[in-house]
Amino acid sequence: MNDTGFNENTENININGAEDDVETMNTAVTEKYDASQIQVLEGLEAVRKRPGMYIGSTGPRGLHHLVYEIVDNSIDEALAGFCTNVDVAILPGDIISVRDNGRGIPVGINEKMGLPSVTVVLTVLHAGGKFGGSGYKVSGGLHGVGSSVVNALSEWLEVEVSQDGHIYRQRFERGEAVTELEIVGDTGETGTLIRFKADPEIFTETTAYEFDILERRLRESAFLNAGLCIKLSDLRDENNVIERNYCYVGGLSSFVEYLNTSRALTPLHEHPIHFSTVKEDREAEIAMAYTDSYNELILSYANNVNTVDGGTHETGFKTALTRVFNDYGRKYGLLKEADKNLSGDDVREGLTAVISVKLTEAQFEGQTKGKLGNTDITPLVSSTVYDKLMTYFEENPSTARAIFSKALDASRAREAARKARDLARRKSALESNALPGKLADCTEKSAENTEIYIVEGDSAGGSAKDGRDRQYQAILPLWGKMLNVEKARLDKVITNDKLLPVVTALGTGLDEDFDISKLRYDKVVIMADADVDGAHIRTLLLTFFFRYMRPLIDEGHIYIAQPPLFKVSKGKKYFYAFSDEERDKYIEELGGGCDVQRYKGLGEMDPEQLWETTMNPQTRTMLRVTIEDAREADETFSILMGDKVEPRREFIEKNAKYVQNLDI
Q1: Which residues, in sequence order, are CB contacts of 377 under 8 Å at separation 6+?
Q2: Is the CB of residue 475 less than 8 Å from the CB of residue 505?
Q3: Are 21 and 204 in contact (CB under 8 A)?
Q4: Between β-strands 371-372 and 364-365, what pairing exists: parallel, antiparallel or unpaired?
Q5: Mean pLDDT in the chain?
Q6: Which of 44, 56, 50 is nearest to 368 (CA)?
Q7: Contact between 10 and 624 (Cβ < 8 Å)
Q8: 2 phi and psi, to 5 degrees?
Q9: In whole angstroms, what is the distance from residue 468 CA to residue 471 CA?
Q10: Interatomic CA distance for residues 515 and 203, integer angstroms
Q11: Which residues have C-beta within 8 Å of that of residue 18, sequence separation ≥ 6?
Q12: Higher pLDDT, 655 or 412
């Protein structure tokens, strides 16, 4: 092969645009295993030795998690009723400052350790006021190890506590106290100030914080705690100081309104439906609104922890919601005697809901706290939703009928989709060996190490078929205008002649019939032109996969090919360039006077060029699609593929700086 500018490279890209963290661990092999091989890590040494065990990763995700741990402690003070303001600032040098007006971390001597309590909290794992003491009735930090981990992973950390008329200060470096706790001033206020700088020895990829990432988390925290005021400031550039204040008296209702606005959705009723209840040491609060969307968004929280995998509180909500609709429909004649009951999917179409519960002993499943396991919260949520939503419907009949009408439409569409699915099965279109006519399959029958390229247009498909390795690479050309599934119900999706070949080729089925064990290829590669039309094709396909074949993304099977924009050649030397900047760099390297070929589409490449640049595993670059934040991904698709133009324009203008060569 001639000299080229290739490097083998497969990257992860997030569906929201952010790259995933990648960690590599080298394992040393010892010749013997005896008592001398057993290590006991003292104090916070274990955290520095295996930081990923405590914060998930040492990439950007883990870096921002440090801030969340400190802020969550301040929010726990708010939950206890002692904090109303939290100020978070990114200082020059990417130093984080978090100040609250809570009670302040106790400074008295801890009898067991013989040290000031604040020192213990910052240097001993699992030390704090959330493990059975009376300091906190409600806390989301029962699984976390909080401030001590932040201290261990910081180059330095300083704490100031305002308490008992004095200001106390102590400094730590990489988890070790380098000063004693000392009084440095007097004050009539109370609260805690923590400043820290992430340790570049741990966070080798970056120690720079993204304002937008912190903003999303802090805004959400303000919504969940009505009346708590959170301020976020970015002071790194004195010429471009950014300040945001988040304080929502409306709490969850404001959250639902924000979610619908950010997703460019139109509510079916003027204000969100809101209700709450308190029973002994448990509290449940729900806000919900129905929109013109065909998709649902339900966010659930327990003690301010986002339970992304749901749990007992979400189960109680969904069960009661379905029962309310069917009982109300029967009672007021909206469902006839011969009609089937509405399903859970029917009554949740277009729903945006936030469920928040607070309880003294939250039982989370797994270290990530992704799922709530307290069984006693289910009847509390269920009875609250049933009683109060039924009352709301009876007191607001016009709103109830508008919402019920949408659920009936969803039910009819779902029945039509079921009939279409049954017909497809009878025709053996989805569950047999009948593959799409335009599919050029590979000879390898096992899914392992095989890949399918979904290509727009017959011209590009022809080049791809001729250039591929037939043993493990399949080609599926698409043609015509593809359906935007964001604007269509399931019955339209399941019968669409442009999408059906994709479903048939992959072999998994879709929606409720989806079975990833039947996937015929390990990699599903979207290969489209590097222009606006190609970006649109990619977005349409990604929307389809996200809405109806989500496990393909969750389990890392979806990729985006990266075709070059230019070929820069001089004599026998040539480079492929993926941007204008790369093109100019290669022209300079070759000394000018170069022949520059601009590829307007995949069809302009001959099979050899397409193989060499985009399909050869030894030289290609591919992006693997992942989901960092499912809610943000949902919001992105709603904006990009929804009906409203203005939110889409604003999104594109805001994110244009992150786009290169129109890659998603």
Answers
A1: 282, 284, 302, 312, 313, 316, 357, 359
A2: no
A3: no
A4: antiparallel
A5: 85
A6: 56
A7: yes
A8: -70, 165
A9: 9
A10: 39
A11: 60, 213, 628
A12: 412
Indicate the Cα dihedral angle 658, 662, 663, 664, nearest 10°. Answer: 70
Q: Which residues are CB-contacts of 638 (< 8 A; sequence separation ≥ 6)?
A: 263, 264, 265, 293, 295, 486
Q: Which CATH architecture has domain 451-564+608-658?
A: 3-Layer(aba) Sandwich (3.40)
State which fold the 252-416 domain adopts.
Ribosomal Protein S5; domain 2 (3.30.230)
Gap between the Cα atoms of 116 and 108, Å rounded: 5
Assign 12 a pLDDT band (cuts: 50, 70, 90).
low
Owner of token pair 């013109």: 292
Among 476, 472, 469, which residue's Cα sits nearest to residue 440? Answer: 476
Residue 217: pLDDT above 60? yes
Cβ–Cβ < 8 Å for 523, 450:
yes
**Alpha carbon of 285 to those of 143, 155, 261, 528, 648: distances in Å?**
23, 40, 21, 46, 32
DSSP code, position 209: P
Residues marked active site are found at 456, 529, 531, 533
3-state secondary structure of 115: strand
Q: Give CA–CA dist 353/632, Å, rounded.
A: 15
| Multiple choice CATH, 52-246, 3.30.565.10, 3.40.1650.10, 3.40.50.720, 3.30.70.2330 | 3.30.565.10
- Whether the Cβ atoms of residue 428 and residue 413 lie closer than 8 Å to each other: no
pLDDT confidence of 630, banded at 50, 70, 90?
low
Which pair of tokens denotes residue 159?
């704490």
According to the model, what pLDDT value does residue 536 have? 84
pLDDT at 16: 57
pLDDT at 399: 96
Which residue reads 């080229």 in tokens?
4
